[in-house]
Design the sequence.
């Protein structure tokens, strides 16, 4: 019989997630993230993103179970057969977006976004943004509340709420989606190849300040933001085969 994997149980701060963590740790043991074979994340999508950011450098697969309000990135919570489920789980490889944001104070911030990188106006004034793809101007002036670049894994989150397209997991594409666009009036975004470099230049940034956010990292008063898919950073999520991430994304396209 194969040696069972060493598991590290991590949980969000809710009482439900903490109680579940204690129950699983008592039953299966609880290794540290550094010593484990698989990280088990208990919570919602927000906690999953926190886990990915914090432990990405360990290169350990993450098996998530829903114990929160939103759990698109998580497996269903069932108390039994955890080891068998992990043994049967299928991997999904995620590549984050790399954000390079320059503020009007001259500071430069690097951050990663597994779901999306979004730009939003900070005041009642609409934003005016120039859009470059691979160094070429594609929109000289986008007048909007904001704009975002989404990965396939994040395309059913904020991107979908902003009326962006749902992207298949293995499509090697990104979604470029405006948020409440005013001009050009008929432009609703674009689907880009994953190796496209997207650069946003903020026009009239003193009068129309804009913030940039990569997952939970926010930079205020940006003047320029460059986004590209990471070439060398990945994380591995594990999913039950009957409800894997690819199937969930396909199902979202037929949801009523």
Sequence:
């Amino acid at each position: 019989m194969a040696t069972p994997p060493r598991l590290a149980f991590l949980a969000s701060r809710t009482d439900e997630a903490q109680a579940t963590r204690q129950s699983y740790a008592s039953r299966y043991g609880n290794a540290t993230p550094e010593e484990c074979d698989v990280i088990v994340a208990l919570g919602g999508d927000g906690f999953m993103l926190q886990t990915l950011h914090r432990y990405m450098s360990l290169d350990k697969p993450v098996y998530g179970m829903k114990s929160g309000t939103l759990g698109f990135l998580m497996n269903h919570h069932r108390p039994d057969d955890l080891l068998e489920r992990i043994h049967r789980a299928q991997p999904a490889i995620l590549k984050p977006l790399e954000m390079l944001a320059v503020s009007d104070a001259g500071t430069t911030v690097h951050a990663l976004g597994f779901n999306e990188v979004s730009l939003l106006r900070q005041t009642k004034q609409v934003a005016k943004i120039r859009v470059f793809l691979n160094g070429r101007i594609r929109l000289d002036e986008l007048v909007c509340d904001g704009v975002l670049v989404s990965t396939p894994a994040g395309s059913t989150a904020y991107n979908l709420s902003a009326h962006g397209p749902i992207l298949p997991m293995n499509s090697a594409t990104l979604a470029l989606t405006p948020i409440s666009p005013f001009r050009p009036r008929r432009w609703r975004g674009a689907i880009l190849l994953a190796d496209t470099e997207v650069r946003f230049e903020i026009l009239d940034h003193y009068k129309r300040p804009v913030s940039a956010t990569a997952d939970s990292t926010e930079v205020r008063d940006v003047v320029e933001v460059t986004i590209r898919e990471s070439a060398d950073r990945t994380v591995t999520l594990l999913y039950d085969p009957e409800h894997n991430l690819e199937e969930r994304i396909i199902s979202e396209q037929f949801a009523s």
In short: The first helix runs from residue 15 to 28. The chain is about 15% helix and 40% strand. The chain has two domains: 7-94+234-252, 97-229. Helices lie at 15-28, 45-55, 82-88, 158-161, 245-252.
